[in-house]
Specification:
alpha+beta, five-stranded antiparallel β-sheet
Length: about 130
Amino acid sequence: MKNYELTYLISVDLTDEESKGVCEKIAGFVAELSGLINNSLEPVKIRLGYPIKKKNTAYLTSLGFSLDPQKIEELEKKILSEIQVLRHAIVVKIKKKEKKSRRLINTVIMRQETNKEKKVELENMDKKIEEILQ
């Protein structure tokens, strides 16, 4: 099972309770596919940067879950069948250990580059000192 995050916009035509019902329904889709819900955010009313389906505002919410990668397409179909969902995006969440290892690799590379630059500077200084002394 992989960890995913689903972020989606719900139509503003619904009341607060109805939007929470849509969130529960989508969480139910994940549960039907034998997925585990890790976390979910309450829907928040936001103003959109551009109109989506002729709407300028929507409820924004997010759902973190674990699911088998083979079942993601089936989940997408179920979400698309939900009329009240204006837009959605499912992304794979990277584990924190992977993020730390990437940062560590980047810092090691940067340190190696600065060490090379220092060696070049020292060599240049030695040459200049020899020129001055001669």
